[in-house]
Structures are given as structure tokens and as C-alpha cells.
Amino acid sequence: MKKQLVLISLLLSFFYSSAQELEKIKDYKGWKWEDIYILSNEFISVAVVPEAGGRVLEYSLDQTNSLWVNPKEFGNKYSSSDEVKSNQWRNFGGYRLVPTPVENCALGADGKRSKRWPPPVVIGDAPYTVTKIEEKKGQAEIDIQSGVQHLPVPKWIPKEKRFSVPKVPEESMQYSRSLSIDQNSSKVYYLHTLKNVGKTTIERGIMLSSQHQSWSDVKKQDGENFVAYIPFSPELQLPDGKQYHINVTPESHWRFVNRRRFPLDKNNPEHVEKFYNIGTNWTGEVAPGIFEIYFDYNMMGGFHIISSSSWVCYANKLENKVFAKYFEKYDPKLKYDHDVNIAIYNSGLETGYLETEVKTPIYTLKGGEEFTFKETHAAAQVLSLPVLSLNETGVVTNKLTYDSKEHKVTAQYGTFIQGELLLQCFNDKNKLIEDIQLHQVSPLKGIDLNTVVPERTSFVKIIVVDKDKKEHVLDQLVFNEL
User: Which residues pair with 291 in a beta bridge?
Assistant: First the structure.
């Protein structure tokens, strides 16, 4: 094994030529904002725009941006005033956050807490402050911070043509985020922190939401090629015993299309079949324990479920690119907004987009207390879909199998880490009998495993060895358990 790793280390010294960069660019891609911070390496590019509500407006793998960006908002920046009406949502697109629960963030006409859309402005749309920029060998980092968000926020009362006016702030919170990338992976590491900067105890969490590119061309409306994958378990059901909730009714679907898209006729059987339903884009179980949803421009609604393995993927089927999120494990003992840690939202607004939403637990925070939530985004080129499973090394898209007649193992993967692919073979005593060095791998190329192993092999591990000779387990299989 030592000789094998020495050989790998020599190979990797020639293989690695990438470096991470962090630069500030004015008017990046014609977006018109003054200060746009770009973190990049050989595989990915991440764009942070402090003036656009601190949002990340680009997360690209090999120049394919996973995020939808709203061209109507290019260059815009807004004040921190929360006196906004329902039609004044400053939706820049990209990766954003909303405090949860959203239902009690505003002050209603009756003086009680209520929901307001758009969400609170200071934490969602107003400019952020850059608090740290650091670039060192192997890593680049940028930290940003919102202003102080006071709740409840005002709400426009149409009948009275006025905003409700909260007497005093009942809650005060501040959000900060650390974002970093490293040199030889497609990963983006996030640390999200919400701090109670007021004196009263609050119960809050955050929803972390990515608005994704959801068709190749608005004229084609090929949303079936842009999907989300969520792992689920029958054991993790919602309080009413259901596996998931869809917050669309046949009537609301029909009404949305009739008002926003084109006139419909309930006497037309084709119209009724196509649009009087909760949508056909909730594809269902496409592999054991994997749910798929694709984008439908004529839909607007959410899908709520518990992600059993604490990951969710957005995939571009036209390019076989996967953009994954993995995060802290779901804890059934904690409270979550709508009782789930994942929601997929199908938006028919603007040019439309599919949204993957990660929900933190809702924490009780006394004055001065905070919580931090860890999340990682990672991207990989793959050879096939759907995504069957995911870990910190990569994704599995074709299950690892063993052919006992040909003594061959086969599988397909995408990796988040650049390195050397190694197949480790063990006997029934769990003793390593052979290291099979395969080839170099990176996030830019899917992996097709088709390798003969020694006849006495009982257990295999698929490893990616990085430039620091650290081993990352991609997959493993015990033959006698087949």
C-alpha cells in the first residue's frame, strides 16, 4: 500500500495544476453591480453580490451556471426599509435566505402576527457588508453580514391604503455567512449563523434557497430536463402520516394557468385533463427511495418532504451535470418549519425556475445567543441519472455490482474531488489483498467503473486519493451480502 501511495503521489504532483482565486470584478457578466466577488478554481466559479441582498448569483461547473439570475434586477440595490407591498419583491435570483417561520414575520391589520410576501427585506434584499476576505494556499474565503432585521415587519393593508405600523421591535436578529472553496474540489463550504441581537427570546430558523436554471430556452419550455432528486424513507413521515405534502390544488393550478398563461375551458376535456390537477411534474419514485421533480412553467407550488439522508440534488439532464447540497442530519426531536427539512418550489414567475430549499431547525435563542448551520454545495459531471446516493466524495448514479462469473465490479459515479481512483480489494478476513490503481478523476468527468478483481475478493472499496494523499471513500460493497 505504501509503494502504491508513493506512486500515486508522484502522479498527482504532475496532475494538479489548478489553483483557487478570489477577485473583485466590476460589472461581472454585464450584471451592472460595482462589487462582485468571484471565487473560482479549475472546476467551479462562485459569484457573491453583497449589493444584491448578499446573494450568490453564480455557482457554475465548467461554465454551466446552476442558478437562475433575474436580468430585471441587474445593478439594482435597495434600502433597508421594510415598507414594501406584495408586488415589490426584489427577487435577484440565485441563492438566498428567508427567516422561518415566515407565517409570523409581519404585523397584520388586526394587530396580530401574520405572513407577508415579500419576506423581511433587511435579511433578504438589502445590501450586505463584507466582513472578511481571505485567500491563502489551498483555500479562498469571503464572509458577509446582513443589517439588523427587526420583526414584525410592516404589512400593506390594501383596504385602508396604509402599512401596519409595529410599535416597537419585538425581535431583532442578524445573519452572517462564511463561504469558502478549496483548490482541488467542486465544493463550496457554507457556515450560516443567525444571532439574536435583541433582548427578548426568539424562536427562529432559516430557509436556504437556490433558484435554478430550469430550461435551455424559454421558447422550448423543456423543463423536464431540469430536475430535483430527494432521498426519502417510509419511516420519516409527516405528522399526518403522509410521506409528503404538495401545496397545489387542482383549482389553484387551473386558476394560475388561466390567469397567467392562456385562457382555459372546463368544457374542453383536454384542458381539464392537462391542467385540472396538482401537476404532473411530481414524477414520483424513480429509483428505490429517490423522489424526482421536474420543472413545469405552468405550475406554481411547493413540495414538502423530509430528506432521509440530508441531501438534495438539482440536475441538468441535457448536460448530465449534478449540483448537490448536503447538510446537517435531520433530527426528529427538533422543530422544523412545516415539519420538513426540504422543500422543492416550482415557480411560474418571471421566466420560471425550480427552487431547492433547505430548512434548518427552529431554535430558541435568548438575547445574545446564536446558532450556526453547516451546509456544503458540490458539483459533478456524471454519465447517467438519476442520483441514487450521495456522500462527501461524490454521487452514485449506477449501483456498484459484482459479477461472480467474470469476477468484475461495475458502477457509475460523479466525483466532487480531484484525485486518483483506487479500487481496494479485501478477502473474507477483511485483509487487503490488492490495490488496483485505475485513473485520474475530477468533477469535470463522469466515472465508469468496469474492473476485474481477484477471485478471492470478498469486499471492495472505491477510493479517491487527493493531492495530500488523503483517502476519500466513494463507495463500497460486501459480496457475501448480495
Answer: 230, 285
